[in-house]
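ok new one. same drill as before - structure tokens go in, u give me an amino acid for every spot. 352 of them this time. try not to just spam alanines like last time pls lmao
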């Protein structure tokens, strides 16, 4: 059984960018390709330079403004991302295709980040009107409705999404998680009950593990997730949950082993961050620092970089290396916006 991939955590991490070119007119958009490469590297200044060159060279405007939108999303400037995606769609053909749906999904995410939930819902309305069996759009629209306390609308969308694949029990668990996180316990339980009464032979070990996690049965969750891992199903999402279950069982050292074993073969910024936090909880700040630095060294699609850099600074403070912490904070502020808290922190570090 496959993972559904539509839960609230996926909604938040969907910005890990399907950064393939989605190219319309392959071989034509050389500056667009260079710009997308820069976005992947998170070199946004270079990205904007390449996209400007693409416009001057007469390359596909829809692809150019899509890339510009992704670059703004990388910079967390979601208002400009919305403008760029809307401009991209203004160059679309009369009949929407894969590229247009791709842009619309990103547009909806940008609206979500701006807490413009009605606008995000309107985007999903447009997708479902043209693709009445688009499961992902129904599920994500339902998630947006929860932010507006439209529980009836959310239930209708979740029910529509699950009706399109009734044996995808991971999707029911996603619906449970979304409902539960917004405080709708009764409606959440309805989706959990579907999984509880299902034939266990139809439920993957991964989803059995998730079910046990939601039920607070962490030791049993570890057993199912370990079985899924031994069957070759391990991905970052599963490893993150497995490590969390071990931590909830008080087995921090083994959680770190699980994270470490995964990144040996599949370097992943999020898992490095979780491994670092695991070491922090054990008071092993040297190992935590190494984990955060290894994660931040990953250049492509590193959507955890901002968190990793902040955690690295915190580790230097834990180690009483305030001078290095101040230098690292200066480097951080050269990339990301400042906040009153960070300004206060910088003042503290530079006066130690």
């Amino acid at each position: 059984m496959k993972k559904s991939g539509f839960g609230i955590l996926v909604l938040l991490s969907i910005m890990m960018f399907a950064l393939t070119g989605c190219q319309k007119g392959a071989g034509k958009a050389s500056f667009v390709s260079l710009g997308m490469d820069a976005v992947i590297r998170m070199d946004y200044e270079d990205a904007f330079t390449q996209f400007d060159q693409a416009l001057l060279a007469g390359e596909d405007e829809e692809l150019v403004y899509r890339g510009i939108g992704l670059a703004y999303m990388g910079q967390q400037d979601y208002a400009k991302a919305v403008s760029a995606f809307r401009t991209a769609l203004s160059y679309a053909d009369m009949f929407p295709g894969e590229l247009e749906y791709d842009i619309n999904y990103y547009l909806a995410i940008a609206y979500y980040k701006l807490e413009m939930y009605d606008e995000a819902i309107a985007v999903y309305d447009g997708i479902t009107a043209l693709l009445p069996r688009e499961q992902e759009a129904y599920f994500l629209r339902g998630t947006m409705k929860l932010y507006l306390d439209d529980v009836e609308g959310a239930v209708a969308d979740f029910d529509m999404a699950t009706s399109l694949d009734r044996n995808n029990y991971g999707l029911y668990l996603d619906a449970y998680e979304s409902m539960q996180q917004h405080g709708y316990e009764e409606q959440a339980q309805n989706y959990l009950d579907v999984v509880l009464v299902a034939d266990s032979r139809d439920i993957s070990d991964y989803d059995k593990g998730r079910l046990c996690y939601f039920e607070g049965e962490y030791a049993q969750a570890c057993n199912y997730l370990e079985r899924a891992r031994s069957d070759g199903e391990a991905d970052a999402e599963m490893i993150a949950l497995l490590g969390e279950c071990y931590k909830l069982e008080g087995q921090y050292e083994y959680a770190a082993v699980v994270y470490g074993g995964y990144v040996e073969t599949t370097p992943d910024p999020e898992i490095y961050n979780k491994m670092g936090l695991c070491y922090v909880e054990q008071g092993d700040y040297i190992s935590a620092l190494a984990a955060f630095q290894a994660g931040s060294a990953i250049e492509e699609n590193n959507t955890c970089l901002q968190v990793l850099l902040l955690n690295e600074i915190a580790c230097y403070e834990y180690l009483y290396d305030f001078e290095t912490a101040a230098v690292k904070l200066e480097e951080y502020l050269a990339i990301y916006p400042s906040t009153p808290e960070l300004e206060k922190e910088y003042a503290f570090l530079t006066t130690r």
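Residues 1-21, 25-29 have pLDDT under 50 and may be disordered. and btw DSSP finds 20 helices and no strands in the chain.
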